[in-house]
Here is the input.
Amino acid sequence: MHQLSFRSMPFVRHPSSAVRCLALGLVVTAVSALSACSSVSDRLPSVGSVVTPYKIDIVQGNVVTREQAQALRAGMAREQVRDLLGSPLLASVFHADRWDYVFTFRRQGQATQSRRLTVFFKDAVLERFESDELPSEAEFVASLDTSRKPGKAPVLQATEEQLKAFEARNAVVTGGTNPPPVAPATNYPPLESPGAAK
Here is the structure.
């Protein structure tokens, strides 16, 4: 009986050469597979261009609206200006008579909004102010809410007829007279439970 050995096989000279041939074949297959992947990925859009990470909205500074700027009057005290516009974003030690109100708003996929209002004081009273084109409150709120379609803002003031109808409905509900005021409750629970040791 003839035994089969690696030496008797003409194409395999040594057992380690078979392992080398197999390893070389795997390396060639892996390299060709990777080169095929790179040629396919050149034709397809990258994942970064299809899927973008979420970026939060960045609001910095003081929001100053057109209505607030219109309320500024020469001769106002610093405290009045601060009450109306809020604390300034920039109050320089080198320019003590100047307050800068700066506002920036960044949202993904939109142009950055940037506005500035500068207030100048002389002897602790408002002398003048300079500003960029400021939005009204309604325009500013509409620019923040991108889910709503722009349209006419609802009227937030009742007409005389609506007020009279409201008073008539309330008079029917209450019986035409105002209810007597309710006296506050004077029943308070005891501070200590009965039978507590003194």
Q: What stands out?
A: The helical segments are 15-43, 47-50, 66-70, 78-85, 137-144, 160-174. The chain has a mean pLDDT of 77. The beta strands are 58-61, 90-91, 98-106, 113-122, 125-131.
